[in-house]
Amino acid sequence: MALSEITITKAIVDRFFRKFLECVDVDTAIVGAGPAGLVAAYFLAKAGRRVAVFERKLSIGGGMWGGGMMFNEIVVQDAGREILDDFGIRTSEYEPGYYTADAIETASTICSYAMKAGARVFNCMSVEDVMIREGRVIGLVVNWSPVEMAGLHVDPLTVTAKYVVDATGHATEVLRVIERKADVRLETETGKVLGERSMWAEKAETLTLENTRRICPGVYVAGMSANAAFGGPRMGPIFGGMLLSGKRVAHLIAAGG
Ligand code: 48F
Question: Is the dihedral of CA 134, 135, 138, 144 positive or negative?
Fold first, then answer.
């Protein structure tokens, strides 16, 4: 049988749009496919929720791939290791309470589990705005990242979601848009993003979990974004807090939002 380039083209266009149409109205829209976003996607999809993840970059994984300073190993503590065990990711004890895992195995395996559980990931899509009705975020405004990068004047499209998770890492991008454009007070001390503090791994790891919560009607924060929102410190390449935060936000949403 001769291969037809046109059939290949039609297959890609047809299948992509079918996939995208299934995700224009979801239960949970997660912004950012870093460790927190992907773990959240897995546990929510496993709980039967319809989940779409929007990732600006071509590659998923966020800050995981590079380990610390491009040495592609990550470190987790006991509780973080238990989550890696759930995914069948190999860990190795370095010293009591410190385990290492290969960053590439970790990123690729978590993403694979999330997708096989039913989550959809849209890479190269940036979230540039939100939709708000009566004080509640009800969806996202998305555009192709290359449009954003090239500064092209192209209007975006929209997706609706019962819940949005800001898992955008250090930048807290969804919250920044809400802060800038909406009349919605964030559930922080000042009603605004408090901003990330300097590196303090131990404190940050505990705070990440405490800070993983609803931040305004319709929106949850997870991962580094949660710490940045509530004025917590950064933690560098120890990833237990990120993984646990993803699991916690999924649990909060699955338990009834
Ligand atoms: O930064 P990232 O990995 O966030 P995380 O899951 O994990 C943080 C750690 O990697 C590390 C750390 C500690 O362990 O401090 O930094 O909290 O992943 C965030 C992802 O969100 C994407 C971004 O490209 C990255 O892959 N992202 C950010 N803003 C947007 C976005 C946006 N507006 N639209 C789509 N994706």
Answer: positive
Phi-psi region of 31 (alpha: psi -120 to 50; beta: other; left: phi over 0): beta
Structure tokens at 242: 């990120």
Q: If DSSP codes are grouped into helix, strand and coil, which group holds residue 120?
A: strand
Residues with beta carbon inside 6 Å of ligand 1?
31-37, 54-57, 62-64, 126-127, 167-169, 171, 173, 223-225, 234-235, 239, 242
Whole-number percent of the chain with pLDDT over 90: 98
* Structural element, H or E, at residue 63: none
DSSP readout, 149-201? HHT-----EEEEEEEEEE--GGG-HHHHHHHHH-S---SSSSSS---PBSP-H
Measured in Å, residue 167 CA sits from the centre of ligand 1 at: 6
- Other CB atoms within 10 Å distance of the CB of residue 129: 18
For the question of whether the overall pTM of this predicted structure is more than 0.90, the answer is yes
In angstroms, the CA 65 to CA 34 distance is 9
Residue nearest to atom 26 of ligand 1 (CA): 62
